[in-house]
Specification:
The chain is built from 5 helices and 7 strands. The protein has helices spanning 44-49, 54-68, 116-124, 137-147, 154-168; strands spanning 7-14, 21-25, 35-36, 39-41, 82-86, 92-99, 111-114. It is an alpha+beta fold.
Length: 169
Amino acid sequence: MEKLRSTIGVFAGISNEEGKLLTEKITQGDFLGDWDLPGGAIYTEQAKKASDERIIGLALSKRVEAETGLYIYDKVQSMPAMYPTVLEGGSDIVFAIIIKGVTEKPIRSETRFISVDELVSLADAEQGSRLVSGRKRMFRMCLRMFASRDWPNLEYRRQASNILKTLHD
């Protein structure tokens, strides 16, 4: 039996005081103009240097700081709760880590905090100013964060849970 070879990514679900989710606009590459969460793939070189599971939080903290200017090192636990999303077929596995109640503003101007309704609008938007992958992986991952018991906004939790139920039915 052949071993599964998957890409592993980790993304930050950063909420502000209102419980909205931080997104960032992609400024280069194939998905130019689309919206995404801070984070991305864990690279082979990072993984090779890992002595334990803290690589996950450290890799995410570095990516978030580079992409948004937000310093979250002190907000990420050494082994944080992670919410998985698996692309059909298992070739792409991503984990979301929730960071609640960030009060500082991102340095990059190409960021914004969004509600569940705004997430749905981004997922349904046309190419170039939409959520990366439309209603696929990133959409499900954002909804899972909003719906988690750790998300600070109860109304967003309810809305996201209802949408997820329709996706899985």
